[in-house]
Design a protein that fits this description.
It is a single chain. The protein contains 20 helices and no strands. With 382 residues, it is mainly α.
């Protein structure tokens, strides 16, 4: 009888209820909210579902991300090995390859002036960098936090890993992906506040046709120029352009399909769950996380505003040929930011079609955020 009682007692004490803290319960609630937003509201579900589920798992069973040094048998938790691929910058780089294979750079090639709006949107990153230093972060930590302003989760994870900010990677990644999913909520009020009704109704001329040769040469030329100037951007820009070359060259259809489908979704699962698993209550519920979330929001708002303001300048310079709304797409949340530009423009004029025009600054923003990460790595000698 005593054996049965002892066995049942051991079994009961092995349940998670005896090990959970109030912080774990809070994080479980946050995970459930994220799952609701992803499933019911469809806010970036392909990213938010694995992130939220990883968050749920680690706050019920912390050992799922335990390192080998912290276990009795010397074998780490399942998600520890996924997370190691984040720290080694492997998963973010593979994500960029998939993004490249799914991206059409034709709107940017047809209208190169969009590079200016994509570059302008990176102002939010540098603004947040200075604010982060003022908030007490070290230079490297400030850079890792500031890159959230590009609304690019893989780049945020990549830079945090390169700058040795693994302790902040979870809050940074969650903030970056959260703002990516909240683009339709955050951007429209800023867009309406900074533009007039007349500006929002501006119709842009149809983009010129882009030849196949131009589409093939673009990823090659961009890789050569950017990587010669900032070699540290090669893992991101190089993989982005390699994926795009698979898509555009016409002789690697199988590679393009694999990278943009099977490989892309496998990597999203690994990256999402491991990022979510880095948000244990101990790592996430602290004052630094609050500062990261606030700074990320400021960076994202400033980036949106800067893109729009440069759009207004270009509108004046071109005699009203550019709708300033497309400047908001200069952040690298592809293609969500471009769709928001279309949506706000359609509110002013339902017959106005801005989506393809907005894709120019949008894809320029992807390159711009990767370049911003390369600038920080160059500054810190990584």
């Amino acid at each position: 009888m005593s054996y049965i009682v002892e066995t049942m007692g051991n079994l009961v004490h092995q349940t998670a209820f005896f090990n959970l803290t109030w912080g774990n319960f809070i994080m479980i609630a946050v995970a459930l909210v994220f799952l609701y937003l992803a499933i019911a509201k469809e806010f970036e579900p392909l990213l938010l579902v694995p992130i939220a589920f990883g968050m749920l798992l680690v706050n019920i069973y912390p050992d799922i991300i335990a390192s080998p040094e912290d276990t009795e048998n010397g074998v780490g938790g399942l998600l520890y090995y996924f997370y190691t691929l984040d720290e080694w910058s492997i998963l973010p780089s593979l994500i960029f390859m998939g993004v490249g294979a799914m991206t059409d750079f034709s709107p940017l090639i047809a209208n190169p002036i969009c590079f200016i709006m994509g570059a302008a949107a990176q102002f939010g990153i540098y603004c947040a960098y200075l604010l982060a230093i003022a908030f007490g972060f070290s230079d490297e930590a400030a850079a890792a936090v500031a890159i959230i302003g590009g609304a690019d989760g893989p780049t945020s994870i990549f830079l945090a890993g390169k700058l040795g900010q693994s302790a902040l990677m979870g809050p940074i990644a969650v903030a970056a992906y959260s703002y990516m999913s909240l683009v339709p909520i955050i951007q429209p009020p800023i867009m309406r506040a900074l533009t007039t009704e007349k500006e929002r109704t501006i119709r842009m001329q149809n983009l010129r046709p882009v030849s196949k040769l131009e589409r093939i040469l673009f990823p090659i030329v961009v890789t050569i120029i950017v990587c010669l100037i900032l070699p540290t951007t090669a893992p991101l820009v190089g993989m982005l352009m390699l994926g795009n070359l698979f898509k555009e060259c016409g002789v690697t259809r199988q590679l393009s399909e694999t990278v943009s489908n099977a490989l892309m979704y496998i990597v999203v699962i690994l990256l999402g769950t491991s990022v979510g698993a880095s948000t244990s209550a101990e790592a996430f519920l602290n004052f630094s996380t609050i500062k990261i979330v606030v700074l990320g929001l400021v960076a994202f708002c400033v980036a949106t505003a800067a893109g729009i303001l440069f759009g207004k300048i270009l509108c004046k310079a071109t005699g009203g040929k550019i709708n300033p709304l497309i400047g908001s797409a200069g952040v690298s949340a592809v293609p969500m930011a471009a769709r928001v530009s279309q949506k706000v423009g359609a509110e002013a004029d339902p017959t106005n079609f801005l989506l393809m025009h907005a894709m120019g600054p949008n894809v320029a923003g992807v390159i711009g955020t990767a370049v911003a990460a390369g600038v920080f790595m160059a500054i810190f000698g990584v």
